Amino acid sequence: MEKEERHMEKEENGKGRQTHAEEENEKGRKTQRRKMKREKRDRGGKWKRKKDTCRGGKWKGKKDTCRGGKWKERPQFPKLPQSSQRPQIPHRPPFPQQQPSKPDRQTEPRPNQPTGRCVVEEKEEEEEEEEEEEEEEEEEEEEEEEEEEEEEEEEEEEEEEEEEKEKEKEKEKEKEKEKEKEKEKEKEKEKEKEEEEEEDGGRKWWSEKVWLRESEWKVGTEARKSLQSHLFILYPASLS
């Protein structure tokens, strides 16, 4: 039982440490994100590409050492074969020991012989070289900043052109909608005209029919009256 309790305590302690480390990592990520957002706001709402930094501020591919803002490639030596793959060289006699040739006094100075240059001059030259390197680095950084500004200007111009194109497309769509509305209005007017013509045609036909009936009725009544008058003249006693 005691062993189980100790094991449980260890697990709880480990979990607590793990959660604490995760919280610390999360806090670090949040602070980094907040810092990046602040930098973006200071730059005017644009994200800057995250560059690695060296003494010159320029990275050129996968390279090894930074010297004055430029990376020097690593010398690639040929790979030596492993001990099992090395060829077995037979025993050879030792080479004869040759005495080193004496250096020419006129061409090569002795190691302890002074070069004739002052230490101060050498330091000044080194400082001048360093200043030249720093100037070159500053020029390169300025060029990079100019290039970034040009890229941002080009992006803004492209965005403006796209917005203008979208506005033109919207105007064209509105014009097409207006044309369609005009066509619909014309169709409605034509339908109304056709309906009016149909109604007028029915009225005309009805009025003609009524007129014929009335004329027939008038003719019939007049004929009947004339016939009655003739019959009264001929046969007055029978009609009375």
From TrEMBL:
Q: Write out the biased-composition intervals (Acidic residues).
A: 122-165
Source taxon at top rank: Eukaryota
Q: For the region Disordered, what residue ranges are annotated?
A: 1-205
Record's protein name: Uncharacterized protein
Task: List, as start-end ranges, the regions of compositional bias called Basic and acidic residues.
Answer: 1-29, 62-76, 166-192
Biased composition annotated in UniProt, kind: Basic residues: 46-61
